[in-house]
Amino acid sequence: MTTGDRGELAVVENLARALKLPTVAAQAGPLSREAQAQGASYLRYLAAVLEQELLHREEASLKRRLKAACFPVTKTLDSFDFTAVPGLSKPQVLGLARGEFIRHKENVILMGSTGIGKTHLAIGIATAACRQGFKVRFFTVAELINELRAAHQENRLNRVMRQWLKYDLLVLDELGYVPFDQMSAQLFFQVVAARYERGSVIVTTNLEFGQWVEILGDERLTAALIDRLTHRAHILVLNGESYRFRESLKRQGVKTVSRTTEQ
Ligand code: ADP
Ligand code: MG
Asked: Whose CA is nearest to atom 19 of ligand 1?
């Protein structure tokens, strides 16, 4: 590089910084040497520099979205062994990972016994959503309730609810482990009702719908909640005994199973 080139490079670096293009500033020099060595055209060089800027920006924004999502652990669908859950449709899960359900403001319910992989799948699908640029937030149901109760006490419930509507996808993990008191049940209902047709939710639960009333305590509220949640929902049952489980869903008159298979 000649002295003249170095002077030009310094100008480019300063301009790039002023324009808030840090990767252009960092890569303009190294890539110009490469371009010269390869005899690449001006346009080819410019494209390479701008491409680096875009790649770095996308990486940084993905990192931000993943951090903001507050996943408790890192899980991807790549590491999920679909053969371990024979009743589960891999194409359906991969379809969900493409994010169409989020664009359509649909929900996903992952039902099954403890340890079957519900949280793994929920995080895997939600991580794929982050990759596509969706804003995601993960909560355990217990965390969500704690946050809501604190917000309610401090008179900022509406603000928190509005804030959560900015997320394209909420993951509510582990419905069924902690029974709600009346107020918690109503707060939980409010979250689901507020998101109805406005934003997607993934719920994981170890309970069949017929058992939700035991957690929520109130029959009418439970029915209203299930109705909103399952209207346009993808219900994935993860169970070794899926036949019996599905049969029991049918016995409870859950029409949502056929809604799922329609999609
Ligand atoms: P659940 O939420 O249904 O209780 P988890 O998703 O927490 O279960 O799964 C328990 C552990 O087993 C996690 O570490 C998860 O990554 C792993 N796991 C469960 N099912 C699978 C699977 N089919 N393939 C790979 N890992 C799995
Ligand atoms: Mg779990």
From this structure: 117
